């Protein structure tokens, strides 16, 4: 175990990344527990307010992210300072990403349906950081020998082809597949060859005069959403808490 830790974490300089990822996940989970307790009126925690202004936790998150980021740049990848900077950065990023939906909408949508976007982005960020920690490189170029690295044409072509697949998947309305596909090549290829989402730019451009393809894309999207929407919502509710019921819908 000690040899594995030294060879895979310490020597490649991945300890700060591991600490940042751990701090990121722990901070998000602790923050969600506290906010759910505040929402339920339990425990000693309360919202922080200055006069009529509610101080969202994205504010200290931004401060911690800036401090941790600049200290990490100045401190390098090794040493106690790098470890502390990574933890501070991870904590700040966890607080910021927990209110990602607020930043997007510029409104307090934390406990609304739109607030689910924060949970999705946090899970996606943690997964990508985990892949980097495991050694995956962007665009899928990893585990190359010295001879392979010297053949720059091969590396560049691999990057460009995989990036093209990721762009096609993104144009087909598959953002998550495109993001992960930039790291794992076959995921991007899988997203590029499958039918586009019916509301995607690809479908609007290429399925406009192909009613059969358009109908097939709509049917496939319907079955996919029906199959995965329920489990996805339950997982998000378990992680971040269920959103408030829309009062307008409640009265119907």
UniProtKB/TrEMBL annotation:
Keywords: Membrane, Transmembrane, Transmembrane helix. The chain crosses the membrane at residues 15-34, 55-76, 82-106, 118-141, 153-170, 177-196. The keyword Transmembrane applies. The keyword Protease does not apply. It comes from the Bacteria. This is Integral membrane protein. The lineage of its organism: Bacteria, Bacillati, Actinomycetota, Actinomycetes, Kitasatosporales.
């Amino acid at each position: 175990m000690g040899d594995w830790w030294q060879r895979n974490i310490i020597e490649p300089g991945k300890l700060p990344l591991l600490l940042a990822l751990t701090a990121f996940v722990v901070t998000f989970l602790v923050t969600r527990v506290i906010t759910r307790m505040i929402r339920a009126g339990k425990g000693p925690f309360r919202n922080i307010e200055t006069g009529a202004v509610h101080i969202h936790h994205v504010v200290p998150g931004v401060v911690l992210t800036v401090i941790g980021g600049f200290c990490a740049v100045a401190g390098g990848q090794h040493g106690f300072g790098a470890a502390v900077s990574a933890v501070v950065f991870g904590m700040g990023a966890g607080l910021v990403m927990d209110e990602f939906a607020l930043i997007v909408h510029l409104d307090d949508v934390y406990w609304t349906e739109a607030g689910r976007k924060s949970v999705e982005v946090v899970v996606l960020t943690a997964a990508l950081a985990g892949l980097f920690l495991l050694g995956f490189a962007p665009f899928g170029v990893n585990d190359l020998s010295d001879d392979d690295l010297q053949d720059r044409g091969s590396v560049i072509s691999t990057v460009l082809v995989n990036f093209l697949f990721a762009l096609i998947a993104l144009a087909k309305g598959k953002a998550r597949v495109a993001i992960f596909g930039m790291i794992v090549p076959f995921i991007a290829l899988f997203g590029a060859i499958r039918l586009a989402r019916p509301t995607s730019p690809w479908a609007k451009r290429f399925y406009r005069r192909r009613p059969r393809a358009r109908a097939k894309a709509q049917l496939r999207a319907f079955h996919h959403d029906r199959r995965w929407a329920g489990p996805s919502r339950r997982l998000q509710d378990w992680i971040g808490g269920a959103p408030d019921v829309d009062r307008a819908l409640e009265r119907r």
